[in-house]
Amino acid sequence: MDRRLFLTAAAGSLATPALAQSRTRLKMVLNWRWQGPQGMFFLAEDRGYFRAAGLDVAIDQGDGSAAAITKVASGAYEVGFGDINAAIALAATRPAEAPVGVMMLYNRPPFCIAVRADGPIRTPRDLEGRTIGGPANDGALRLFPAFARLAGIDAARVNVTNMNPQLREQMLNRGQVDGIFGFVNTIRFSAQLVGTNADTAYRWILYGDYGMDLYSNAIVVSRALARDNPQAVAGLVRAINRGLADMLREPDAAVASVVRREALVNAQVERARLDATVRDEMNHPEIGTIGLGDIVDARFARGIEILADAQGLPRRPAVEEVFDRRFLPPLAERVMRVGA
């Protein structure tokens, strides 16, 4: 794990007093079931950071990064941790309902297709005529038409099937599908839980290797919450930022916070998943300049163009329609990457 991360937090932020009035209640849905990288949210809850921001946050596990976006859009939740690309697509078609990103956490694309290392699939072209499976709300599955266009393959010649997420790796291992959609580290460590060393058993087709330099999971909030209670949104982001800083400084404590919520979680696997997620998905060189949580507008705009062209979106949302940085803590209070 790249530990060349510099954590700073202004003393005033760390000493934020609890608000005198009753706390604002928020419902938050995660990207997936309980996993190590989610420890940042649970540390924020366990250590009173949400309370210090005047918030009472109820956190539910999710069933896909894309699903988190639609659940916030539907009004079932005010806050989500989900795929910003799904928010872009929704903003292109239903702008009044689409949630807005307020804190970017996964700034390197984790989307992939995993295939068996002993199988015939080596390049995207080899996917044609094969069956690739994934959960219906998986971000990589949702982005497959865009990937296919950039990789120069005919998506119509790939049979896409849905599956229960708990069966994904087993179905690949048994040859019931030829490949599976997912996030690299979700597949890697879910495979480990069923006794498979994914790094030797699987071959990876990474979307980022074919021009999809996309941002991924972000904290999103409903437009109503951003409009009507900006103080709550700013407090939420500040609290998560504090939990993130603690997670990077105390990864074992972050995993312990997950285990407290689900005793069946394998702490060793989740610690490895946390380390790999920080290294592979939260460590883009740009954060040395802009800090973790923000975006580079030009890069984000290119991502919008990629999605619009590949998915035939009816309009290209402006960057500011999808991401609002005004709720972020100052740069000095956020996580910085230093060194090469």
The CATH topology name of the largest domain reads D-Maltodextrin-Binding Protein, domain 2
Order of helices and strands: EHEHHEHEHEEEHHEHEHHEEHHHHHHHE
The share of residues in helices is: 40-55%
Which consecutive residue ranges, at least 5 long each, have pLDDT under 50? Answer: 1-20
Describe the fold and architecture.
The structure is a single chain. This protein has 340 residues and is α/β, with parallel strands linked by helices. It folds into two domains: 5-108 and 215-337, Periplasmic binding protein-like II (D-Maltodextrin-Binding Protein, domain 2), CATH 3.40.190; 111-210, Periplasmic binding protein-like II (D-Maltodextrin-Binding Protein, domain 2). It has 17 helices and twelve strands. A five-stranded mixed sheet has the order 3-2-4-11-5. Helix 2 (39-46) packs across helix 13 (251-259), helix 7 packs across helix 16 and helix 12 crosses helix 13. It is globular and about 60 Å long.
Identify the notable features of this structure and list them briefly:
340 residues, alpha/beta, D-Maltodextrin-Binding Protein, domain 2, five-stranded mixed β-sheet, 41% helix, globular
What does this entry show, briefly?
The chain has 340 residues and is an alpha/beta fold. 41% of the residues lie in helices and 16% in strands. The protein has 2 domains: 5-108 and 215-337, D-Maltodextrin-Binding Protein, domain 2, CATH 3.40.190; 111-210, 3-Layer(aba) Sandwich (D-Maltodextrin-Binding Protein, domain 2).
